[in-house]
From TrEMBL:
One Pfam family per UniProt: RGS
Name of this chain's protein: RGS domain-containing protein
GO molecular function: phosphatidylinositol binding
Species this chain originates from: Cherax quadricarinatus
UniProt cross-references to PROSITE patterns, sorted A to Z: RGS
Limits of the RGS domain: 23-138
């Protein structure tokens, strides 16, 4: 019955004039869309779910040497507090504790992440599609030229912005726009990571049980993320300025030696 109602609801949404439906997997893969989904979840008191999911994805792609550190942050931030932002049964929680003690791998966290993903899709995705936050996301995406289908392409697949001397101003502007969109999406991803790290640091400080070295290391990561965020933010602003004035730049040579 739940599946039938969900399918019917999605079908009715697709028939709404002018309504663009972003598929759930595309939503998760887009840093831009996740930021708005996170805002919506915060509004309904469920923001921890998307933050937890993002933290698990970070472990999936991190070096194995960082698995226990990242796992400890997840444990103290989402699973250990009372009440926990993300609830799991006792056997699963013991599995996480076994991982933190080095007795098993991080697969238990991946399983929780998959369950959280199903919860997000089944309980909150359709509500997001009809929310004012989703409407605001589509409006901003249109203004900024965000393409949800291509923004998450691997960095290695992004083409060079250098063209031949005969390349038109319009083509250069399009390439700069693509690069700027990628940079803005990366900026949103950095902001998401920074928010998660700050939450983790707050939880570690409050629990009073965390290793001081872990806290110090996390503080260093937060400082580096803030620095990276500021540099990328400046880059996005300058790229926008450069693109807006393509074709009008002039160089004045004062002297030649």
């Amino acid at each position: 019955v739940t599946t039938s109602l969900s399918d019917s609801f999605s079908h009715s949404l697709q028939n709404l004039p002018g309504r663009k439906i972003l598929m759930f997997q595309a939503l998760l893969e887009s840093a831009f869309a996740r930021r708005y989904f996170s805002i919506y979840l915060d509004e309904i008191g469920q923001g921890a779910f998307i933050s937890f999911w993002s933290a698990v994805q970070e472990i999936r792609h991190a070096d194995k040497k960082l698995h226990h550190q990242l796992g400890t942050e997840i444990y103290y931030t989402y699973l250990s507090p009372h009440p926990p932002p993300v609830k799991v049964d006792k056997p699963t929680l013991r599995g996480v504790e076994a991982f933190l003690l080095g007795n098993r791998g991080p697969e238990v966290l991946y399983e929780i992440g998959e369950e959280v993903e199903r919860t997000l899709e089944e309980r909150h995705y359709t509500g997001f599609l009809v929310s004012s936050t989703y409407h605001a996301m589509l409006h901003q995406a249109a203004l900024q030229g965000v393409d949800f289908m291509t923004e998450c392409a691997e960095e290695g697949g992004v083409g060079s912005t250098e063209g031949s001397s005969t390349e038109s101003v319009e083509q250069m502007q399009m390439q700069l726009s693509d690069h700027s969109s990628y940079a803005r999406n990366k900026l949103a991803h950095l902001q998401e990571r920074l928010t998660n790290k700050l939450l983790a640091l707050q939880a570690l400080r409050q629990c009073g049980k965390a290793d001081a070295k872990v806290i110090t290391h996390l503080e260093g990561e937060i400082s580096q993320l803030r620095s990276d965020h500021k540099l990328l933010e400046t880059h996005v602003e300058r790229t926008g300025l450069w693109s807006d004035n393509i074709g009008r730049w002039r160089v004045h040579v004062q002297s030649v030696q």
